[in-house]
Design brief:
three-stranded antiparallel β-sheet
Amino acid sequence: MARRTIRVADILRWVNISMGRPSSTRRLPAGTTPAQAFRLGQASLLEQILHATGNYAGFGYLEEVGGEVRWLQGEFVHGRTDETRRQYSVHRNLRFDYQAAEERAHKQVR
């Protein structure tokens, strides 16, 4: 079971500093949707937490094909691939807890 204490106050401070510093604001390309901007925010926060706890294991891009979202087949092409569609790899320290979370979510859907 992966446990690493992370102070909520540290994350709150990091978010507040990031949101208040114009120099750290990422310029979004014209045409970026609110959903894409939201996903970038989620990714940024998740990466901060995973790195701070030593549980970052990378990510892969996803693509939507025929209404289904799947791992990107082929290479990432800037401007053509939606870089906000990502799936983060589960670090070996988190696999047991992640599987348990998926099982709980599956039971709630029923």
